[in-house]
Amino acid sequence: MGESLVANWQLAARASFLNPSSRRLSKVIQVLGLYVLHADTEEPDVSLLPYAFSFPYFDHGATDALNYAGIGSRMAEALSQLFFSAYITSPEASAAFKNQFHCMVNATSNKMDQKSYGPYLEPLSLKTALYAYRARNTGTDVRVRGLEFLTPEQLFFVAACYVRCVRPSGPPGVADGQCDKAFQHVAEFSDAFQCAPGTRMNPSHRCELL
């Protein structure tokens, strides 16, 4: 696999997606996540781990839609958690976080730490990544061969869901519900796929933080 630690890390993660028998190679590093948040002010706010720049999160030959949906949405996820940590002590912001949390889970729990709230920031991180993609894409992004029927923004959402489905540490089928739960609160998703009003993915009421 070569002598580079970074290259080995990337290849081990990539092998886990392409060959089920290789999943043991990357199980430990996958559990670590794609990024690390730092509490120490002398450190960078967030550090991406080496395999974050491997398929399916990033590839030099991929379209912008795929890369922004992959590493882009995960970077936005990290930034949204930093946003949560920075503002949770503010009374107004804390109330907004709790309202969105209760809206999405239909619960009244007052547990509001970064670990428990993190998954409910996905609509925000998806929108952030999509807006970054839109700013980058000036109509020049190409369609993927074999998936020409998907517009670039449709491909963005398909790829964003895919990177949630390929996590080897999760049980089968979990990502399906995870994608639906997050994407139904993103109006841009229903706009991209022209979902009928009132359907599951285009509800009359969405849980929005901003």
Rounded to the nearest angstrom, the distance between the terminal CA atoms is 45 Å
Instruction: Report strand %.
Output: under 5%
As a whole number of angstroms, the C-alpha radius of gyration is: 18 Å
Query: Count the strands?
Result: 2
Count of DSSP H/I helices: 9
The main sheet orders its strands as 1-2
The coarse silhouette is globular
SSE-based structural type: mainly alpha
Main sheet summary: 2 strands, antiparallel
In round numbers, the mean pLDDT is 77
Order of helices and strands: HHEEHHHHHHH
Low-confidence stretches: 168-175
What is the gist of this entry?
The protein has 210 residues and is an all-alpha fold.
What labels would you give this structure?
210 residues, mainly alpha, two-stranded antiparallel ribbon, 9 helices, globular, Peptidase_M13_C, Peptidase_M13, metalloendopeptidase activity, MetalloPept_cat_dom_sf
Description:
This protein has 210 residues and is an all-alpha fold. It has a domain at 61-193. It is built from 9 helices and 2 strands. Strands 1-2 form a two-stranded antiparallel ribbon. Strand 1 and strand 2 (46-48) form a beta hairpin. Helix 7 packs across helix 8. It is globular and about 50 Å long.
SSE map:
Blueprint: H1 5-18, H2 23-31, E1 35-37, E2 46-48, H3 64-87, H4 91-105, H5 114-117, H6 122-136, H7 152-165, H8 174-183, H9 187-193
Antiparallel strand pairs: 1-2
Helix pairs in contact: 1-2, 3-6, 3-7, 7-8
Protein name: Peptidase M13 C-terminal domain-containing protein
Domain Peptidase M13 C-terminal: 126-209
Pfam family, one: Peptidase_M13
